[in-house]
């Protein structure tokens, strides 16, 4: 009996990657608790590309993607400011990107790229590239990587702020351990065939939902 109970507990604790094709995460309210938590076996990144799609009617600033390690709450952060500026933070170093048109209640596609060798980062938004800017060079993202959707981590896995949370829908989250070519990014932006992420793959995503976040069929209008 004890062995059966142990097996049940182990099964309940073991996360199984899910194919979220045609699905979206819905964050229906402003809270400092609700989020999607994603872990990865990767412990070091010398380059990275993150792509996802989102829809919101928020006018204030909000977190789009938050990656933290025990030594740095902002090892990688994509954050939209109230004035429409996109903050891209790597290893606690910030670059600001302007010119993105954050229309309300419209699906947007965003991709960010960075590599440690050059230190350059770039934001692609709805098919358009930004200028490339120096963010952080010479050091890798390293440690126990924890990714959170829906909240900004001000500590590893916590210290959330309602005023920074995301309210809306997110879909098609992918992450690679290299910088995608412009052609691959355009394919993602246009919802064409592309190589799925080798760190995070929306078609095989290992995640946990904390609080009131829904997994629903994706509403495709505008995608």
Shape: globular
How many DSSP E strands?
17
H/E topology pattern: HEEEEEEEEEEEEEEEHEE
Total of helices: 2
Structural class by secondary-structure content: mainly beta
In helices, the fraction of residues equals under 10%
Unreliable parts: 1-14
Q: What number is the mean pLDDT?
A: 90
Radius of gyration: 17 Å
Strand content: 35-45%
The biggest sheet, with number of strands, parallel, antiparallel or mixed sense and barrel status, is: 8 strands, antiparallel
Distance between the termini: 51 Å
Describe, in plain words, how this protein is organized in 3D:
There is one protein chain. The protein contains two helices and 17 strands. With 223 residues, it is mainly β. The strands form three sheets. Strands 1, 4, 9, 10, 11, 12, 15 and 17 form an eight-stranded antiparallel beta sheet that branches. β5 and β6 form a beta hairpin. The longest helix is centred in the N-terminal third of the chain and has 12 residues. The protein is globular, with a radius of gyration of 17 Å. The relative contact order is 0.29.
